[in-house]
Amino acid sequence: MIPETKLQVSPSPHIKDRVSVRRIMFTVVLALMPATLCGIYLFGLHALFVIVVSVSSAVVSEFLGYRVMGKKFTMDGSAVITGLLLALCLPPSVPLWIPAVGSSFAILVGKCAFGGLGQNIFNPALVGRAFLSLSWPALMTTWVSPFEGVSTATPLGTWKTGGGYASYSDLFLGRVAGCIGETSALAILIGGLLLIALKYIDWKTPVSYIGTVGLLMFLLGQDPLFHILAGGLFLGAFFMATDYVTTPLTGKGRVIFGFGAGLLVVVIRMYGGMPEGVTYSILIMNAFTPLIDRYTKPRVYGTVRKRWWERKK
Amino acid sequence: MSGFKGGVHPKIQKLTGYKKTEVLPLPPRVVIPLRQHLGAPCDPLVEKGAQVKTGQKIGDSTAPVSAPVHASISGTVVELSPKRLPTGEKVLSVIIDSDGKDEWIKMPALDPEKSSREELLQRVREAGIVGMGGAGFPTHIKLNPPKKVDTLLINGVECEPYITADHRLMLEEGEKVVEGAKIMAKILGVERILIAIEDNKPDAIEHMQKLSEGVGRVVKLKTKYPQGDERHLLKAVLGREVPAGGLPFDVGAVVQNVGTAKAVYDAVKLGIPLVERIVTVTGEVAEPKNLRVRVGTPFTYLLQQCGGTVGKVRKVVAGGPMMGFAVHEDVPVIKTTGCVLVMGEVKEEEEGPCIRCGRCIEACPMSLMPTHLVKLVRAKDFEACLQYNLLSCDECGCCAYVCPSKIPIVHVIREGKKGVRRLRK
Ligand code: SF4
Ligand code: SF4
Q1: CA-wise closest residue to A7 among B287, B397, B345
Q2: How far apart, in whole angstroms, are the C-alpha atoms of residue A98 and residue A138?
Q3: Which chain B residues contact residue A301 at CB under 8 A?
Q4: Which helix (H) or strand (E) holds A147?
Q5: Which of B112, B166, B193, B321 satisfies CB 3.0 to 4.6 Å to A14 for a cystine?
Q6: Of the partner residues B309, B343, B389, the one whose CB lies closest to the CB of residue A1
């Protein structure tokens, strides 16, 4: 019975968990759907076009980029996420070449240039967004009101110039000006909680990130709830600060990452020239990820923890 | 209970948990490797053509770490030649053709109450008993630790999916397990006997609780792989952590598998050496079974008795799916073989890039960073491998099990261990 058949000899373990990269990635895409649909509902058909252009140029760019690198392209869903996330953090009124350029930059420079999936240091979608903001600042800060499409300021913009606050319910539901997918905290929360429930993302990151912003704003005499709900904090905290590739590997590291990003958001909003800060807070913390990983090695079973100053490397 | 960190929950596939152990008919031929344990191989004590009886010692060694082997059927020695073990190594083996009579030679029974510690220890050695949970360390050495211990922990956890050999043993011969544990406790000079069982075997828990009254205590554990590993079991039951590079006696405990306890009972009370064990035959076979099998019985014979394999067979695994060895030819059951698992068409997924999801780190019960280890081994940076505690890896496979990129982490780590050893030489 045994000798006749060609048996496969492969190393243990002989069973694997069903979860795959593709499954994780497409679940994240699914989790972004409430925010996506909400954005289209609020800002109209143009928002849908922005999303479509962004996602398709991301996928095409990755295909071409991998071609040039001589790597095999697989439709693992990671490019879809990048394209979608970038679209969700663009103003709804941008011309359609903006998502095309942004997505290509995000994938080619933010990801392929580093060696492809798993190798990049910075969140590609945010790299794309930062590039667009620096290159076309005017287009990237032109906001429209939901439903009517009339030019207006975002709640954070109004706050920065000393205007009045938007109501909590408008902020929570997303009935304010802002990027396509970031205005509705509720929609983002639905997707985020799904990912947390599936254990695809670690709850510690959004909790420490959002918690830090709320706490520090409170200590600084600001309205913490307003700062939590306004702007792109929720989208950043649930979907960008939790990106596997560019954030720390361990729970402890993720808490530190969230705290650092939260601190940076507060510093930028309070003392910088910009009303926002989420993009840069995450990009800056991305740069610290290798360092955080190094100092948050778990204590190996059967060994005594060494303090960081006792370690050689 | 404190539990232990990490671990995974593979789907429980105990197809045979409710099936009474059947005695496998004697095979026409057995292949008995002269090394079935961790330690030195034995020298043969018989020559080609010799007549042997069941229970007769056919191999022994003067090396300090070794355990003798015995004929498991009566008959004629027809060959002495190297044969492959389920683990893949080739070891000099004694091949015996059965005379169908199964005539026994037994050692005189001992009264554990009256015998001295040394006598009992000697008996355990003479019976060729090794740890039956997997690694197969000679039991007489484990029962003679260089330090004082306070606890004997009987391991009835059996955390690998599919395997039910220990489960059935506890249900069917629990008395012998308890008696064996008492003998081992006497040898060790310990008062405290704990029997650890996972909560997916409530019947065994209840049964062993009754049997062990006044002798020891049953500790119920939450089901999680790899809880059956000594180190994790000690952490879960006693909250003690074996220091890296150390052994359980360093934290005052000795862990013995339930099968080993039963073998000790047989050796002392009945004078029977270790020549048989329970093997779960499962997976893609017509009828999965628990079988009482003589050591040296070829896997093929076991499979025949289970109605043969069904469908397309891709892998035959000696042991459980998490840590077992894939075999590519017919090999014999040895003292540490608890399971023969037949696997059908398996989708072998291609390895992808590490996406740094951290799942492997979360799953690693040793708290290592498997993703880093893979990168460091592949970069051949063995110094850094040591800094990242490569040698602490017990190859449990949790990391590779959870990796969404299907990176063969354990395989790479094994390669890394070889590299590190070369570096040290
Ligand atoms: S095989 Fe090694 S690295 Fe992987 S989980 Fe087990 S102990 Fe950790
Ligand atoms: S589980 Fe696999 S993909 Fe995830 S961090 Fe570990 S090695 Fe990388």
Answers
A1: B345
A2: 12
A3: 5, 231, 235, 241-242, 244, 365-367, 392
A4: none
A5: B321
A6: B309
Residues 69-108 of B with CB under 8 A from A: none
- Number of helices (H) and strands (E), helices first, in chain B? 12, 17
Rounded CA-CA distance B350/A74 in Å is 11
Consecutive H or E run containing B400: helix B398-402
Q: ipTM of this predicted complex?
A: 0.91
- Taking each helix axis from N to C end, the angle separating A97-108 and A124-135, rounded to the nearest 10 degrees, works out to 130
Task: Tell me how close the Cα of A18 comes to any Cα of chain B, in angstroms.
Answer: 8
Half-sphere exposure of A267 (CA within 13 A, CB side): 9
Give the distance, in angstroms, between the CA of residue A86 and the centroid of all CA atoms in the same chain: 9
B404, A313: Cβ pair inside 8 Å? no
Ligand 1 pocket test, candidate residues B160, B242, B366, most atoms within 8 A of CB:
B366
Residue A234's pLDDT band, with cuts at 50, 70 and 90, is: very high
Give tens-digit pLDDT for B333-390.
Answer: 999 999 999 998 777 778 999 999 999 999 999 999 999 999 999 999 999 999 999 9
**Closest alpha carbon to A158 in A169, A143, A173:** A143
Distance CA B91, CA B40 (A): 11
Helix (H) or strand (E) holding A41: helix A21-43
* Percent of chain B with pLDDT strictly greater than 90: 84
Dist. CA B253–CA A55, nearest whole Å? 59
Ligand 2 closest atom vs CA B363: 1
Beta carbons of B74 and B99 less than 8 angstroms apart: yes
Q: Do the bridges between strand B69-70 and strand B75-84 make them parallel or antiparallel, or are there none, so unpaired?
A: unpaired
Helix (H, G, I), strand (E, B) or coil at B94: strand
Mean pLDDT of chain B: 93
In 3D space, the residue among A217, A202, A223, A224 whose CA is nearest the CA of residue A296 turns out to be A202
**In which element (H, E) is residue A215 found?**
helix A204-219
pLDDT band at B1 (very low <50, low <70, confident <90, very high): very low
User: Using 50, 70 and 90 to split pLDDT, how confident is the model at A313?
Assistant: very low
